[in-house]
Amino acid sequence: MSEISYVIKYDLNQTVEEAYNVLRANIQFCESSKKITTLAVTSYSPGEGKSTTSINLGISMAKAGMKVLYVDADIRKPMPFKYFMSTNLKGLTNYILGQAELNEIINKTDIDGFDFITCGIKTNNPVELITSDRFSNLIREVRQIYDTVIIDTPPLGSVIDAAIIAAQVDGTIIVIEANAVRCQNALRMKEQLVKANANILGAVLNKISKSEYKNYYGSYDYYNSRKKYMKKWSQLIKNLKSLKRGEYD
Fold this sequence. Notes:
Oligomer: single chain
Helix content: 40-55%
Strand order of the largest sheet: 1-4-5-3-6-2-7-8
CATH topology of the largest domain: Rossmann fold
Strand content: 15-25%
Low-confidence stretches: none
Distance between the termini: 73 Å
């Protein structure tokens, strides 16, 4: 494992951070007789936020005291510095090709309990790599080390990789960008995962506007309630005092 602790930028507002905490709790609620240790995260199209969701979910879990590994398995777009400014050029593909050992591709971060593996070097046969014994061995090994392993996969609307990986893990989460994906395409993606015998835990609706978010939760406003209700209570107390003095009409 790399001795360097890479700095991770994590600056979410309270509402967004709570949304990830809720997602973390809901995943735990999905556990029945089998503990969900390995997770695949996918979307229909690029740019829907699956990687951001994967990383922030992992950090949320780590902050809750869990030991978490994020794996970038989008090996069709091998950019070592895609999400983390890592100086370690060895990643997932290097391990599968036998060019590196597991401890050489795992990177630590400044967030206690949160590690990551980059995608590694470019290859011409990504499907062969993720269907190999080396990839299956990696999943088996890391699940013995970490409480949760989050595998960030390519968009399922473009390539089959996500379904192949989903068939090898405990659960799969679908990230859908609000007002961007047609219902038919979302259903097609679900059908493909079902064919792969994936355990679909649910979907994350991402990139919701503030107005839509408020409409979704109705008039219940938790984070602004302190100021709002303190003001109401102050006015009520003031009115009660006025009543006692006979000044309030």
